[in-house]
Amino acid sequence: MRAFVEINKENLIYNYKTIKEKTKKEIICVIKSNAYGHGLIEVAKTLAPQNPKMFAVSTFEEAALIRKNLIFTPILLLGVCDNFYFASNYRITLTIVSIDYLRKVVAANLPIFIHLLINTGMNRDGINIQEIEEALELIKNSKLILRGIFTHFASLESYDLQNQLFEDSLTKIPHEKLLIHSQATATMLKENNITNAIRIGLALYGLSDLLELKPVLSLKACPINEIKVNASEKVSYDGEIIPNDGYIYTLPIGYADGLNRSHKIEVSFNNKIYKQIGVMCMDHLMIFSEEKLASQSCFEIISNNLPVIELAKKYATIPYEIVAKLSIRLKRILK
């Protein structure tokens, strides 16, 4: 087997239940971008029996794949979709990302569930506060079914201001029976009495320091070759010089699988850390060891010994980037 992603079902369910218990709110499980690299269908099938309020995805293709796998949890499509018949027939809730997009959805003349996204300062997408009355009038005179209202916080620093703007905007909208959501992982524990649901992505996968959550994803690769080498020999493209006598273990994973070619990767084997040697290839990665290892065993690239949060700090990035880049050609295995 090539390199593979291992998903811990028990930890995923534990995280979901812990977040729901601590927040006392409905959970919208964010499974966009292949469930942040964890595997869209694998995660959806694991969480669907827990009856989350909704799944949130980014693209029409993600929503379609969920429905093709006979998963009927309500879906909130965060991105745009021009296939309005699909949205109506398969009960996909569309996000209204602008007043112009709302006009297009209205013109489809179909019964479609929608959530209004209010722009409170992210300035990326959403209905501007001064457009709310126009939006409500368009919805009133259409077949659209308003089911929710939400906003997106730009940062913890802007939370108070944006939250106040969102609360003010709700005074313009009859919302007693609607799903109201604004908080995500970073703000999920902040007291917020105006919302009845939260969108959870990072924390769902244990990639947050908040609460005592458990990591869900491991990335592993079993060596496909072992080469005994001497000091001063060279390895990989551009010929890095081998520092000591030892062994090179070739792993079937590379930058085509989502690893960053500019980083020197470390792996864990029997709780000991080994370093990459040579330039990373598209499909291969070489690890050096001075001692002979049991090459039939798998090396861990992401694990409890090499957690995503720590890797993100080391590589000056964010946990999202590390896991979301993991290629779909890596097999996802539920354990």
Q: Topology of this protein?
A:
Elements: E1 4-7, H1 9-23, E2 26-30, H2 32-36, H3 40-47, E3 54-57, H4 60-68, E4 75-77, H5 84-89, E5 92-96, H6 99-107, E6 113-119, E7 127-128, H7 132-140, E8 145-150, H8 159-170, E9 179-181, E10 197-200, E11 217-221, E12 225-229, E13 234-235, E14 240-241, E15 246-251, E16 266-269, E17 272-276, E18 285-289, E19 299-302, H9 308-314, H10 319-324, E20 331-334
Parallel strand pairs: 1-20, 2-3, 2-10, 3-4, 4-5, 5-6, 6-7, 6-8, 8-9
Antiparallel strand pairs: 1-11, 11-19, 12-15, 13-14, 15-18, 16-17, 17-18
Helix pairs in contact: 6-7
Provide an overview of this structure.
By secondary structure, this protein is an alpha/beta fold. It has 2 domains: 9-205, TIM Barrel (Alpha-Beta Barrel); 217-334, Lyase, Ornithine Decarboxylase, Chain A, domain 1. The protein is built from 10 helices and 20 strands. Strands 2, 3, 4, 5, 6, 7, 8, 9 and 10 form a 9-stranded parallel β-sheet that branches. The chain has a 5-stranded antiparallel β-sheet with strand order 12-15-18-17-16, with no helix packed on it. Strand 16 (266-269) and strand 17 (272-276) form a beta hairpin. Helix 6 packs parallel to helix 7. It is elongated, with a radius of gyration of 23 Å. The model has no long low-confidence stretch (mean pLDDT 96).
